[in-house]
Amino acid sequence: MSSHVPSASPSPTPRLSAAPLPVDAPVLELRDLTRTHGTGIAEVHALRGINLSVHTGELVAVMGPSGSGKSTLLTLAGGLDTASSGQVVIEGQDISTLGRKGVAALRRRSVGYVFQDYNLIPALTAAENIALPRELDGVSVRKARKEARAALEEMDLLQIADRFPDEMSGGQQQRVAIARALVGDRRLVLADEPTGALDSETGEAVLALLRNRCDQGAAGVMVTHEPRYAAWADRVVFLRDGSIVDQTLSTAADSLLAVEGAE
Ligand SMILES: Nc1ncnc2c1ncn2[C@@H]1O[C@H](COP(=O)(O)OP(=O)(O)OP(=O)(O)O)[C@@H](O)[C@H]1O
Ligand SMILES: [Mg+2]
């Protein structure tokens, strides 16, 4: 005898990947994107008409002075803020059409985000912080914890798996935040100054991991102030006053590095 079963799927999150992406479609596409804060004389144009595509396998570095719009670009690309105009398309979907729940589901499933200030949850251990987004997305607790420990191992941090954020150094917190962004094969990895709190050796190791993740098929966008780290990217995008003023291949960033080294 059948009890009442609702005909709609009980899944709380809408399915997002019904239509396969064309092979050469970008994982992330920003189309004429603007973001304006405030009105009248307080109006700030944080972004003014950004066009940017990032394909699978690509790592793009974003550089520019403080206040040029780097974090704004990243938060919009990750669906954490809403554009004033223009479109953010992730894996072929214009995120403005997905609704709040849809964007949240897309973020959990497809977007790894490293915040400029880490954003770890203080009441959770390192391993729990990494496992949480996966558990929220329906992965079993056991599998999520196993993945979390593997991600910590990749970051050489297994020894702090059971520590809370206030028991970690800044660099350790940053690496836990990176592990959280990389766990679970997300297609788009967005990192806002992921090396800010790291010594240069650890910074290079983190960049190698990001690079490796992109080589395996993710698309990455990383904000950095350091030409040394930008040199790991395929392309460098320079922002000034909310606009892209230049784009170069990272070989040109190598020459920036040479200039810096000569100083
Ligand atoms: N909530 C807000 N209200 C008003 N202005 C804002 C807000 N958020 C950002 N801005 C402004 O938008 C501009 C871009 O800020 P954003 O944080 O993107 O810069 P950034 O390039 O990441 O700088 P930094 O290198 O210092 O992190 C700045 O002028 C900033 O003051
Ligand atoms: Mg910033």
Outline the structure in words.
The protein has 263 residues and is an alpha/beta fold. It has one domain (28-262): Rossmann fold, CATH 3.40.50. Helix content is 35%, strand content 23%. The strands form 2 sheets. It has a 6-stranded mixed beta sheet with strand order 6-7-8-3-9-10, sandwiched between helices. Strand 9 and strand 10 (243-249) form a beta hairpin. The protein is globular and about 50 Å long. It starts with 27 loop residues before the first strand and ends with a helix. It binds adenosine-5'-triphosphate and magnesium ion. Magnesium ion binds next to helix 1.
Attribute tags:
263 residues; alpha/beta; Rossmann fold; 6-stranded mixed sheet; 35% helix; 23% strand; globular; binds adenosine-5'-triphosphate; binds magnesium ion
E-strand count: 10
Number of domains: 1
Note poorly predicted spans: 1-18
How does the major sheet shape up?
6 strands, mixed
Gross morphology: globular
Q: In percent, how much strand structure appears in the residues?
A: 15-25%
CATH topology: Rossmann fold
* CATH homologous superfamily placement: P-loop containing nucleotide triphosphate hydrolases
Average pLDDT, all residues: 87
Compressed to H and E, one letter per element, the order equals EEEHEEHEHHHEHEHEEH
Q: Using only CA atoms, what is the Rg?
A: 19 Å
Identify the CATH class.
Alpha Beta
